[in-house]
Amino acid sequence: MLLIDCPHCGPRAEIEFRCGGEAHIARPASPEETSDAAWRDYLYLRRSPKGLHLERWNHIHGCQRWFNVARDTVSDEILAVYPMGSPPPDLGRT
Amino acid sequence: MAENFRLAEGGRIDRERPLRFRFNGMEMQGFAGDTLASALLANGIHLVGRSFKYHRPRGIMTAGPEEPNALLQLDRGGGRSDPNMRATVVELIDGLDARSQNHWPSLGFDIGAINDLLSPLLPAGFYYKTFKWPASFWKSVYEPRIRAAAGLGVAPTEPDPDRYLHRHAHCDVLVVGGGPAGLDAALMAGRAGKRVILADEQSELGGGWLARPDVPLALAGRLTELATLPEVTLLTRTTVTGYYDHGYVVALERVTDHLADPDPDLPRQRLWRIRAREVVLATGAIERPIVFTGNDRPGVMLASAARAYLNRFAVRPGTRAVVFTNNDTAYVAALDLAARGVGIACIVDARANPEGAHVAAARAAGIRVVTNAVVAGTEGRRRITQAAVARLAGDGGLAGHLGEPMACDLLLVSGGWNPNVSLFSQSRGRLRFDERLQAFVPGEAVQATSCVGACAGDFSGFDGDPAPLRPLWAVPADRPSVRAKAFVDFQNDVTAKDLGLALTEGFRSIEHVKRYTTTGMGTDQGKTSNVNALALVAEKLAKPVADVGTTTFRPPYVPLAFGAIVGHSRGALFDVVRRTPMHEIAAAKGAVFEDVGTWKRAWYFPKPGEDMHAAVARETAAVRRTAGLLDASTLGKIDVQGKDARTFLDRVYTNAWSKLAPGMCRYGLMLGDDGFVMDDGVTACLDDRHFHMTTTTGGAARVLAWLEDLLQTEWPGLEVYLTSVTEEWAAIAINGPKARDVLAPLVEGCDLAADAFPHMAWRPARIAGIAGRIFRISFTGELAFEVNVPADRGAEILEALLEAGRAHDVELYGTEAMHVLRAEKGFIIVGQETDGTVTPLDLGMDWIIAKKKGDFIGKRGLTREDLQHPDRRQLVGLLTAEPERVLEEGAQLTEAANPAVPARMVGHVTSAYHSPNLGRSIALALVEGGHGRHGQTLHVPMPSGQSIAALVTKPLFIDPEGSRLHG
Q1: Taking CB atoms and an 8 Å cut-off, how many pairs form between chains A and B?
Q2: What is the ipTM of this complex?
């Protein structure tokens, strides 16, 4: 069980959180001008990388706030926790 | 039975506290401090079970958790029955009742042993190859027989009467293992002021030291100092079973299993869930057996186990022993046994020129040592009687027997030592094959894990060195192969031949070989067998062992009771049960409840003599004739506030909210961005910045989480605050032509007249003296009001309404009648008419999609070509040709009455009921191009072969003009 450092509540067990999948999937600003293909990508296409993954987490059984997490999917090491709306920190890897 | 094999003195048993126990009904005696295994051995019992497949007699092989053979069924009374308990780790208690497993009629004479003679018919994977014909026999005859014949203990039949607790703990350093290396690690961390937990599986700390003839004084010194360190917690009888991510470790503490008469306030076991910054593994090493013909007879024992029984438990495990080794450590055991009067017939050492202090000591003690030799076979039915010794030839084969077989009742074996890397591997640490030890040792750690002592491959604290050793993975047989069984995995009866067969048949990956032969898959998870198995495979494939690699080590390290995993989460505490404020009244009225999410909702209210059908018919009719009362409290309610609340509603609902005035409500559909219906409900405008939103009962939590997600991540600029108020309000719906008459006398401060209080309005009011809200909304198509009052007044208001309704023949109705009533009107239920692939257009609800407002969630999705397609499944009504025939929900629809198979299915039934108000069956269905099929007949093929014809109609069966809505 992961130990996730909630930016508001501190380190808590994974069981208190809900994972919201890949981060930085922005809803297109002008949906009506978005092509079908781009809209499909926004709705359905997600990465499943081996290694660094940027993902959204919600402290659903705590402060209920959303934040971003950079996690290595091989080791499960959490490399960074950063706020919603911020670009991913430079972790020196892709 | 007398303890003929107990030494007169010594050991760590308490001779002042004799304990009585039973084995297969025989009364025996042991002492406090014994394990069940040591007590059995003290009574001369070696034969304790029959093997899994061949029913071969098996004895006690080890003195620890790695035991593959000595699995017993323990009965502690009162329904407490534990199968497959390892006698080597069960502490003896007074009155213990132990039985051997997997034999009939008795342990000594077991009919199933015929399998041993039939073994040529039962090779690895036999169930994939034989017992295949006739096919029908597999399920009915072969499988049940094979399962009955192969096996372990019997699962208890009674609910577990014991209590199990979970405990969470955090520490700087968790030390696993209380041997010398673990104690040192704990001391070092403790002295530095760190918060330390030390967990050890045994009843006392000391680990390998406890098996020495004289336990070092250093042990007491260390324990004394540890006791003075306030931040150090010592847990005995606590086995770490799992090492997961980020220092999360699970350990099982056996709190009362060692007590004959435990304090009833104590739990049986406690599951520790520990989060450790750093983990030190001091888990020691496990001695390896050697794979040779007849290596499984009772009396064949790991050398270190014999030493532990002798020194720690003061038990002589035999009278005359042969020792078979490829390293020095077994010499130490032989010397200890000889010193306590056990005859050592011979030490058979596979090495050509063993030397060193222990070898010299054995020779000096007059023990016969033969080198470059092996035990090539054994005899003895229920106990070993002799061992045949042979010379090894240069090619690894046998160079002939070395004299006559040696008589013995004990054969000690040491094939080297495996560092106990199970937890290290679970932590994702990588393993490295150490050529010197011929074993896997910890390599690079992935977490903050360090290994110390024998676990790290450091055997400096051992008596005798496991290296140098001569690798000896399988000793050639000294007899025809059909009679030669050399076991690799004792618990699963996997022989060296089985592994060879798997390779012959083309299996290469060790993971495949494992699954095909079942080696390493028992309750012992191959603690004694894995390295032998994979080294054997490597040898046969002519590959280095490191290249074959290990199979995955998985939690739990040792079996643990389901009760311990479950803890308190059983029975009433298994899941949340939510009851409405009016639950007790419904129960008193005889309601039958159904589960909706975690809620208990009144399903129907049968009167004496009524079945469900009759009750629902009465309730449904009453609503359209007079009025009915429904507990609607479970609907999700979300308080929406903030200056941008209206904008927010505009974005999450398909319809327009900009003009909804305070005092009015509106029905809304929520879509996902894919355009599919997600939830629905009525939202009321309390004031310009304050709305009261309702959701479906089951969708409440999901909708709130989703709205929060949007606010926090998509539209952080909107000032909107969401709060769940589901449980703040009790809600009662009053539906039917008499609804106003029932309610009016109870209401103050609000005019219920149609013009003053129109449909889809809400008003604050006092109802039966209670301040609340009244909503004029209807889910039945009847004149209807929904009364909301603070939850703690819910029961009161329902009583008042029932009293007021008595004059009008008002009935309580449940969710089933609610379903029928809404289906009569074609109102959808999200999750019943929709399944995540249904759009508002499919439902014929085009009217709810705002044409003029800007973007909303789902708008772009709906414009996708596929979602506009005229042949999509669309909501229709169905009327069966036989009015009494009620369709089955989920039934498929076809165009032909008797379609050719495979039939093309053009839709499915989503809801189907008998409608008492129409005197016939009705159904809703999703049908391809359904909106254009009104008037067509479709067919519902049934499993009986018969088809049911149904007419496609509009999904609206009653009051098409909607006049009843206005009373």
Answers
A1: 56
A2: 0.97
